[in-house]
Amino acid sequence: MEQVTTNGAVPGINTGKSAIKATPRRNLPSLPAAAGASDMNDAIYTCKVDASPISWEALELYSVFSLAADGSYPRVKVTRSKAADLRTGKSAPVGSGRCYRVVF
Predict the structure, then answer these.
(1) Which of 15, 61, 85, 104 has its CA 20 to 30 A from that of 95?
(2) Strands 91-93 and 82-85
(3) CA distance 92 to 104
(4) Residue range(s) defining the domain that contains residue 88
(5) Quick check: is 28 in a domain?
(6) Do the domain assignments include residue 92?
(7) How far, in Å, CA of 67 to CA of 46, rounded?
(8) How many helices (H) and strands (E) does the chain have?
(9) Coil, helix or strand at residue 58
């Protein structure tokens, strides 16, 4: 008979790999992409900007804000410590500060 070393632990009942049923992956269609800037349409949005700044901590997640009082260069708070630029889509770390809430 073969000796099993468990280092003093009680051997489990199901020590072998269990048969986990794999869920089938859905094949979803991809998003259609524009070929270039010439295929895109211009869009102009109007928005409201708070008159007084609020603290970064008071801003809710996924809220649009701007660092300028005129609402230029809007960003989105994506985590407690990161904001994403709406023009480029890149995120940047944010520690604290004051910002202006933007509502489209």
Answers:
(1) 104
(2) antiparallel
(3) 22
(4) 44-103
(5) no
(6) yes
(7) 17
(8) 0, 7
(9) helix
Q: Quote the number of domains for the chain.
A: 1
DSSP H or E stretch at residue 76: strand 75-79
**pTM attached to this predicted model:** 0.65
Are 77 and 61 in contact by the 8 Å Cβ rule? The answer is: yes
pLDDT over 90, % of the chain:
54
* Tokens representing residue 59 in the block: 């801003």
Tens-digit pLDDT profile for residues 35-84: 777 777 888 889 999 999 999 999 999 999 999 999 999 999 999 999 99
Judge whether 82 and 94 are in contact, CB under 8 Å: yes
pLDDT at 27: 85
Contact present, 100 and 68 (Cβ < 8 Å): yes
Torsion angle of the four alpha carbons 91, 94, 99, 104, in this order, in degrees rounded to the nearest 10: 20
Q: Are 64 and 74 in contact (CB under 8 A)?
A: yes
